[in-house]
Amino acid sequence: MTDRRADTLSCAEARALYHSRLDGLTGETGLEAHLARCADCRQYVAQMQALGAALDHLRRESAAVTLPGGMTRSGRRRWALYRNLARVAAAVVLVAGAGWYLMGVRQTGDGGLVQRGADRSVPATSPASQLAEPPAIQAASLELTDRSASTYIAVPRDSGRPTVHLFVLYPVAHGASGGDKL
Amino acid sequence: MDDAPVETRAGSSRASSAHEASPDDAGLASPSRERLFRLAYRFLWDPHDADDAVQDALAQAERSVGQLRDPRKRWAWLYQIVIQRCLLHRRQQAARRRHVPGIVAAQAARQADDPPAAPAETQELAQIVRALIAELPPGQRTALVLRHLENMDYRTIAQVMEVTESTARVHARDARESLRRMMLDRCPEWTGTDDR
User: Would you say the ipTM is above 0.90?
Assistant: First the structure.
């Protein structure tokens, strides 16, 4: 059993001695006698030992880590630069394409849009009204390769807009006043 | 894995050999790239951040090689630059977190709702300690990492930190005390023994 008279240390002195022992500076200094008497310092030592074990665990764990493979930082920076350049180039192409498209269209007084150079505007009305009054085709000349069909899709050549009209075509006999429906 | 010693301009031109031992640099071997990486990892705990920190440190060493007053202390100087880069990285990370109040508020709310239980296993405690080390003041953190994770002796630590050996001991001791205090702040029931 511990001799109480042998313990002349205060808790602060005992803890300082404990740290010195951890650092390998002191040997037997009466620390054991103090620990046998003082429950607080025993708990302090237990906590320090637990922290020491945790630090040992971290040291072993980190000793196993290896340099990451793959791209280095400079490589990642270069890749990010190329990626951003590609994004900027894509944005420029999009803006230039939209500008090129819009440059070919001018606005009319009634709010409609007309292809620059065309003589008929496309009114800014609903698609239904456009169906009710289909635009006339002036002097269209089509060469049909399949005469069995009666309905064709014709896209006016002078239209820059993505508008598709359906036309039913009638053959016209040369020298005749009218034509028969197909 | 490249484990060759890192050769700085100071190491190649001012000394006859990279492995030459000098009285002032005796505690530090010529550090391999991997060793510097591991040192950085023990500060940052992220392999990519550690790799970046080492690369930045080596670039900085090349740029500022003229500031190396004593070529015999080149390895301590190199360690020092790596540590500085790591501490700077940590500060920048902390600043970024401060600028995202939502994250801080969510963490505070989580802690208030669910105070952590005392860790029962060393592995569990180690993960908490790892986070707490990041909160230590730079001097204590450096001394603790070099002493307990890098396993350096105090003479070498003093060289790297450019302090006396006794100051290095005080830093390490204060770091252990701070860790214990922070653990008790976080888990008041923590006794250090597995009594759950």
Answer: no
The reply to whether B96 touches chain A by the CB within 8 Å rule is: no
**CB–CB of B122 and A50 under 8 A?**
yes
Whether B193 and A51 lie within 8 Å, measured CB to CB: no
Q: Does B34 lie at the interface with A, CB-CB under 8 angstroms?
A: yes
Q: Angle at the Cα of A127 (from A125 to A131), degrees rounded to 5?
A: 110
Please give the structure tokens belonging to residue B131: 């986070």
State pLDDT tens for residues B97-106: 666 555 555 5
The whole-angstrom distance between B145's CA and the closest CA on chain A is: 9
Q: How far apart are CA B30 and CA B36, in angstroms?
A: 10
Quickly count: other Cβ atoms within 10 Å of residue B169's Cβ: 21
Q: Is B190 on the interface with A (CB under 8 A)?
A: yes
Contact A117, A147 (CB under 8 A): no
- Sorted by sequence, the CB contacts under 8 Å of residue B4 that are 6+ apart come out as B32, B33
| Shortest Cα distance, chain A CAs vs residue B190, angstroms | 8
Q: Does A52 touch chain B (CB under 8 A)?
A: yes
If you write DSSP's letter for every residue of A26-84 in order, what string do you get? ---SSHHHHHHH-HHHHHHHHHHHHHHHHHHHHHHHHHT-----S--HHHHHHHHHHHH
Q: A176: buried, middle or exposed (CB in 10 Å: 19+, 13-18, 0-12)?
A: exposed
Is the Cβ–Cβ distance between B41 and B74 less than 8 Å?
A: no
The predicted pLDDT at position B107 comes to 54
- Tell me if residue A174 falls in helix, strand or coil: coil
- B140 Cβ contact list (under 8 Å, min separation 6): B171, B172, B174, B175, B178
Checking DSSP bridges between strand A165-168 and strand A151-154, what pairing results, if any?
antiparallel
> What distances in angstroms separate CA B137 from CA B117, B133, B141, B178, B185, one per listed residue?
25, 9, 6, 10, 17
A63 touches chain B (CB under 8 A): yes
Residues of B in contact with A51 (CB under 8 A): 125, 129, 176, 179-180, 183, 192
Cβ pair A72:B51 closer than 8 A: yes
pTM attached to this predicted model: 0.60
pLDDT category of residue B176 using cuts at 50, 70 and 90:
very high
